[in-house]
Give the backbone structure.
Amino acid sequence: MISKSHQQMLRGALGGALLWSCGAHATSYMNLYGVFDTGIEYVSHASMSGGLFRVPSLTGEVPSRWGIRGVEDLGGNLSAVFTLESGFNPNNGTLGQGGRLFGRQAFVGLQSDYGLVSFGRQYNMTTWALADANLLGPNIYSISSLDPYLAVARSDNTVAYKGTFRGLTVGATYSLGRDAGGTGNTPGQGTCFGSIPGHTSTCSQWTAMLKYDAAHFGLAFAYDVQHGGPGAAVSYFDGTPSTPLTGQMDKDVHTTVNGYATWGALKVGGGWIGRYVTTEGGAPEGRYDMFFANASYTFTPAFQVDGQLVRIINTHQNTRATLAVLRGTYSLSKRTAVYLQSGYLINSANASYTVSVGGGGTTPPQGATQLGVMAGMKTSF
């Protein structure tokens, strides 16, 4: 089995979100938590001038953050819950998510035997659908290297529901304005504040999920639709120009199908992610198909090795890339670990995807291969 401490870290890799099971706890509490993850990274072919060394700003194995979360028992199997979570850049101490104080999460809700209903800035169902099958999570080298939106998909002004019943989890979100902070939830995507009079779909977003978990395997499906609006754009992160997404009926759609299984100390997972972008006239502006497979093996309670292979095919822009990642983690205690990892990216002739999501500035020349290596340390509280 995957160690208990690693399961906790995987949940932390999703941003430290509090995962309430069906049935409210008969206790009230509030706690402070956080993760600090940093190290030294080398990226080859970071530009025409060559490679670079740096301390990444965005992530290592997991993004750095701190937060406050709480539960109040209201009686009758009903609880009030909240989370306030702030991301920060460990290389210089500045706030993440475009300078937001609680840019990772800021929501309040009610939890009962029928699930959780919550309101605020929060993760959508694309994130929850990938939680178990994407074993590397928002790692500095991972599926999010090829589409950073997949690291931790979230939105402002969101109403969410998620409930689990005999292993089946159903969930949905609706956002009235997916980027009201005006900082851009994903680099290259522009901003999208909210609806305007007479145009209620402007900048809205909805997601839906079905997920089934058994003792040793699980399956998940998610559908995610982002509508356009003033200031919005779409980037494919492959070196091609961004596409304006300014019309309220313009759509950026992600579909996710994945699964995982466990055998003793081994866990495997994989899936398909499809993305397509259309304008108001219905003309396709872009599309990709991404396939990923990964595995994790716990050799000892203290030492774990993870690997991932990703292939992206963007037929509309005629760009493709293959990414291979290998990561080893050694736990010094339940809260502190050191790690060494590497990612190797092969771009097609017209593509310039980057291997690293560690803070920008590493886009290689078209057709270049790229190597990333990072040695780091993380500690949690």
